[in-house]
Design a protein that fits this description.
193 residues, alpha+beta, 60s Ribosomal Protein L30, Chain: A, single chain
């Protein structure tokens, strides 16, 4: 099976200030969206979703390329993924398309990542909002990086589509101050220092 990518979207947000406090380093959040034709839309229950899982790998690779370009050389510190399935599909179709097989090419593109990736999927009509949860790319216990990216895709998914979403951020929340494990501590541990 090969997935037909109907279109891609790249959304970039640069945040320079939060709660009236200017950031020392602006935070860039990126959402990469691939709208794919759902080959199982309208077919009823299909027991074996392995073909969808395998077909997601090149889509993940393409989304990884788009992510690196959109980040403009910035380090990735956190990430998350999500999917919205059009009304003729089922939620499990998005889950099959968002497994580790899909995510590993993105991890490779951003220079590696060890933590599991927060995820959310749902069924919806065009314009259905979704909040994609995000966490630190190496350790889910870094509180400053618990975040999300809210998206509304006005003309998708159509009934026979799945919107696959991967979000990335160059920093944790601006003004994060709830303590706990820090990004610097995790990176020190990752480098063996």
């Amino acid at each position: 099976m090969q997935l037909n990518i109907r279109r891609t979207l790249v959304l970039v947000e640069d945040r320079h200030e939060d709660s009236g406090v200017k950031a020392e380093i602006s935070r860039r959040k990126v959402a990469i969206v691939a709208i794919v034709e759902n080959p199982l839309a309208g077919k009823g229950y299909v027991a074996d979703l392995k073909p969808l899982i395998e077909a997601s790998i090149p889509v993940g690779a393409r989304m990884g390329e788009l992510a690196v370009e959109a980040l403009g050389g910035r380090e990735v510190q956190s990430y998350g993924k999500g999917g919205i399935v059009g009304l003729n599909g089922e939620q499990e179709h998005a889950n099959a398309l968002l497994t580790t097989a899909f995510a590993n090419p993105i991890r490779d593109a951003i220079g590696g990542a060890r933590a599991w990736i927060s995820s959310v999927t749902k069924i919806g009509a065009p314009g259905t909002p979704i909040d994609v949860p995000m966490n630190h790319k190496h350790d889910v216990y870094v509180r400053s990086h618990y975040d999300s990216m809210a998206l509304t895709l006005p003309d998708t998914p159509m009934p026979d589509e799945v919107a696959l979403i991967f979000c990335l951020s160059s920093e944790g929340r601006l003004n994060a101050r709830v303590g706990g494990l820090t990004h610097a501590e995790v990176m020190s541990r990752e480098s063996g220092v």
